């Protein structure tokens, strides 16, 4: 009878826990769509600006303002615009990565049935130490002895934790 109560029950989409997990995924998806729209708009704007205008007179160079405020000849537009374009590209890339991270976090939370940090800790301990969630003391002791043997064969003196573990073992006997 106790085995039947331990079996996981099937989740539904209307469960508050599932709604919280799916809410994060849906919010990440909406954020991702918005960041893609902003990125596409920026790219299209740069492409349209790069197309030469028809029927524009090219007899004189456009008037530009120099650093000292005087009007001068044509300046190199790529030097001033390059750093701005790089900053915009970095901002858009960061926005896209963060939106994907929020969406992926929501998807992973739903897939592994994680609702908060305590669930994540419980899941990680169960995967590392087994269903009990506690380390196996015999396995830990065996690993310490194996490491001590390997270090002694390599000629490395074990001064730190090895002696303390040895003293504990002697006092336990």
UniProtKB/TrEMBL annotation:
Highest taxon, organism lineage: Eukaryota
Region (Disordered): 57-78
Entry keyword annotation includes Manganese: no
GO cellular component, one term: membrane
Segments passing through the bilayer: 21-38, 89-112
Signal peptide (UniProt feature, chain positions): none
Record-linked InterPro entries: AIM11 (IPR038814)
Primary localization class, coarse: membrane
Keyword flag Transmembrane helix: yes
UniProt keywords, alphabetically: Membrane, Transmembrane, Transmembrane helix
Membrane topology note: Multi-pass membrane protein
Cellular location(s): Membrane
Compositionally biased tracts (Polar residues): 57-67
Family stated for the protein in its record: Belongs to the AIM11 family.
Protein's name according to its UniProt entry: Altered inheritance of mitochondria protein 11
Source organism: Cephalotrichum gorgonifer
């Amino acid at each position: 009878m106790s085995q039947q109560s331990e079996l996981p029950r099937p989740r539904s989409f209307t469960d508050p826990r599932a709604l919280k997990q799916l809410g994060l995924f849906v919010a990440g998806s909406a954020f991702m769509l918005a960041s893609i729209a902003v990125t596409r708009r920026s790219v299209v704007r740069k492409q349209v600006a790069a197309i030469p205008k028809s029927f524009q007179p090219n007899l004189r160079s456009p008037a530009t303002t120099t650093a000292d405020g005087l009007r001068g000849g044509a300046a190199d537009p790529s030097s001033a615009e390059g750093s701005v374009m790089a900053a915009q590209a970095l901002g858009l890339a960061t926005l896209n990565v963060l939106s994907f991270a929020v969406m992926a976090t929501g998807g992973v939370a739903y897939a592994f049935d994680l609702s908060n940090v305590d669930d994540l800790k419980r899941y990680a301990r169960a995967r590392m130490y087994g269903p009990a969630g506690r380390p196996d003391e015999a396995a830990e002791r065996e690993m310490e002895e194996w490491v001590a043997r390997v270090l002694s064969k390599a000629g490395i003196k074990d001064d730190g934790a090895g002696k303390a573990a040895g003293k504990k073992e002697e006092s336990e006997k």
